[in-house]
Amino acid sequence: MPEKNSQTPQLPHTMFINGEKTPAAAGKTFPIYNPATGQELTQIPDASETDIDHAVQTSKAAFDSATWRRMPPASREHLLLKLADLIEQHTDELATLETLNQGKLIAFSKMLEVSGSVQWLRYMAGWATKIEGTTFDLSIPFPPGTRYNASTKRVPVGVVAAIVPWNFPLLMAVWKIAPALACGCTVVLKPAEETPLTAIRLAELAHEAGFPPGVFNVVTGRGETAGAALVKHPLVNKVTFTGSTEVGRIIGRQCADDLKRASLELGGKSPVIVLDDCDPKKAIEGAAGAIFFNHGQVCTAGSRLYVARSIYDEVVQGIAAVADGITLGSGFDAATQMGPMVSARHRDKVMGMIAHGKLEGGEILSRDAAVDADGFFVRPTVIANRACKPLSVVREEVFGPVLVAMPYDDIDEVLAQANASEYGLGASVWTNQLDKALRLVDGLEAGTVWVNTHNMVDPAMPFGGFKASGIGREHGKVIVDSYTESKSVCIAY
Ligand code: NAD
């Protein structure tokens, strides 16, 4: 599967700290790859504790200098809007970098990563001028004759450490930095070691837009070293993390020890529930989209399918046929419908989980998942689990194009099965029966429940997980609370 892109942009290969392109102090680097070819793309700085300290000190100095947090909110808004414009102007470059480094289809890089980032920045920019407190009357009776004027104001939380995964590299970075910067915080962002390119360009573009040096820094490095050093740095006031539940637990423990604020957006094992009135064609299309979008590398991927027994075979066989018809290849090739997994390690993990599912008694309905190519491809896979066994692919997040499908007989049974998961990120219900849809919406333990759609997100709609899928919510009005502290002011007169 040859790489078809001929107009490769310049590949960023330094961190971005204090408004400057910055290599690692010790000069160490590590390779990043093109997952569609398996070839090395470039070398990226492997940040050590020293580099992380430099970035955090820089960010702290920028916060303390108050040029950012005391800047008129409308000026912060203006800069965020300017960054959105610059991203839009660099759509082709950013989308190409994303597809080269992450493997997703170029149309999705443009539409979701770049346009999505622009949309989120513009929405969040608006919050900069709308952060407000409340005033209230107090009942303190002394000293006699004294009255009080009391209010709250929201102040930026301080230096934010933002750590993001590799599935939507640019968009996840913007989901963190846009609200943090709108609220007046300064940021050190660490992209995933697999996919740092667009995050570095994002910081360079922010500098070009006129953000003061040190307000937004990007460090590159490995999770256990650079990421861990960032989380435990004493000058970091808040950690905002998106990634696996396993790493979220480590970060949550460290933040609890340090009494740092933390928001955690973690893994998922989202159920898709098809009721018996659903048109099988619509169910096939919806459920296939819910799992195969972004090659299944989506935290809300609809990876557990529950179909009413009367239409189970038709729907599940139909999804297997969709899977078998999907063309794999380079994200730059117009004929490609699904790109590679992000890394060789991740491909091996996904292949291992498919093999394990089969060993445990799952019936593979689709073609062999193995692909003979240099890139890290896995064919979309549908596993029938008619006996509803507690297979590992039912319990554990695969984070790849792997669907496991179970039949059910009644709504209480399917609700219990859907909720029998440590995760609670997303869920979808496919039906036109309003009463049953609302019963499921009520009963499902998930941060987002979609009806007759799946995976849809919007900057105005809060997003986050129940249970082991995380703590806190991103987007919407609630995001302001996440990057600010409430300060009460009490004036005697
Ligand atoms: P990951 O947890 O392995 O890594 C995520 C980030 O954490 C990377 O930048 C990594 O370098 C860093 N990291 C790793 N170990 C660390 C440590 N000890 N200390 C600090 N940082 C560390 O996750 P991944 O494989 O990159 O991404 C896939 C996971 O992300 C899936 O579980 C997926 O569900 C989840 N995800 C969740 C959401 C959401 O909004 N809930 C969105 C996208 C992805």
Uncertain stretches: none
CATH class group of the largest domain = Alpha Beta
The averaged pLDDT comes out at: 97
The CATH superfamily of the largest domain is identified as Aldehyde Dehydrogenase, Chain A, domain 1
CATH topology-level fold name of the largest domain:
Aldehyde Dehydrogenase, Chain A, domain 1
Bound molecules: nicotinamide-adenine-dinucleotide
Briefly note the structural class of the backbone: alpha/beta
Level-2 CATH architecture of the largest domain? 3-Layer(aba) Sandwich
Described by the principal axes of the CA atoms, the overall outline is globular
Quaternary structure classification? single chain
**Distance between the ends:** 76 Å
| Rg result | 24 Å
Total count of helical runs of at least 4 residues = 15
Tell me what portion of residues adopts beta-strand conformation.
15-25%
Characterize the main sheet: 7 strands, mixed
How many domain units? 2
Task: Give the neighbour order of strands across the main sheet.
Answer: 14-15-16-13-12-18-19
How much helix is in the residues?
25-40%
Query: Total strand count, please?
Result: 22
